[in-house]
Amino acid sequence: MRVAAVSDVTIGYGTPQLPLLLDSLREYLNAEVQLIEPVQPELAPRHAQYPQFEILPAATAEHPHSPVGRQEYIWRATRLIDRLKPDLLVICCTYSLPVLFRAARRPKKVLYYAIESIPFYGEFDVEMNRRLEGKADLVLFPEENRAVLEVGRCGFAGIPKLVLYNVSNRRRDGVRALPAEGRNGRILYSGTISRTQTFLDYYFSDRVRALPIDMFGPVKGAPGDQDQLAAQSGAQLRYQGRVSSEQLARLRPAYAYSIVAWNPDNENQLYAAPNKFFEAIADGVPPIAAPHPQCRLMIERYGCGILLADWSFDSFVSGLRRAMEIYQTPLWLRMVDNCRRAVEAELTWDSQFDKVKAYL
Description:
Layout: E1 2-6, H1 17-29, E2 32-38, E3 54-58, H2 67-84, E4 88-92, H3 93-96, H4 98-102, E5 109-113, H5 123-130, E6 138-141, H6 144-154, E7 161-163, E8 187-190, E9 193-194, H7 195-198, H8 206-209, E10 213-216, E11 219-220, H9 225-232, E12 238-239, H10 245-251, E13 257-260, H11 275-282, E14 287-289, H12 293-302, E15 306-307, H13 313-325, H14 330-345, H15 349-357
């Protein structure tokens, strides 16, 4: 059995669900796996993290996420797929979908992992997705509302559909959360830091600076934003710069909470919860989350975090203050235990992949 995948990004940066899906397919089908990836010149290869795959970089003259670079990547990826002749093909995101239309032969099985919003790439991609009937055997979405919207606009008639949450913890081995006395009593923020995307202006307020927050991640926006954020450090808030995902995974369990809030200014930013939401739950660190539909669903289903009333500054501040008021109380301990319950119930990759097995 041979499995091939066409990624939309350089492997090892974001979207950990694609290598998880491929590894599960490799184990379940006893298959060899080839992964085709675009070469993003700003990112160093991380192939050593995935010795179980053969990784085939497809370099392009222009950046692969430019219109011209995407066309060249599709051409190169299609040639590789025609040469490999996989039994099962995984297409990641509508970005890579043209390969399926250009390939010389249709593999026996095609899994389409629609992990990004289709309209994000434009009307051409929406129309292309409308013509998928007969070309795919299963469409995977990261969130229920996104699935409803995408099916409504693209149809996917006659193709089974599944929702796989953006979890990245593999096994059902429960949460080994640090006990209360092992926590640092601080709130974690990790990920992109931006005025437009993630409310950077909120962190410049004295009311927020007075709270024990550690911020990790790249600052994107105006050239002076990172300097301004560094200058805000000193009260209780601290900007800690960028760290690798491996370093962050070692640091996260010691925190009291993790902030998950971003600006829902378009469809792609409203629905599916990011990896860090599920990673916090997996580490027994209750998320403080804005009311994005999937965050609301999980927090209300399991009682494993604090849900902000809305995306406003006042709701943000009151949610953070409320979190610190109940830290190490029985209510907080119950939220930590509910993180374990959520993981044992469904929030592991193995649990999500169980949904796929029936279609293989």
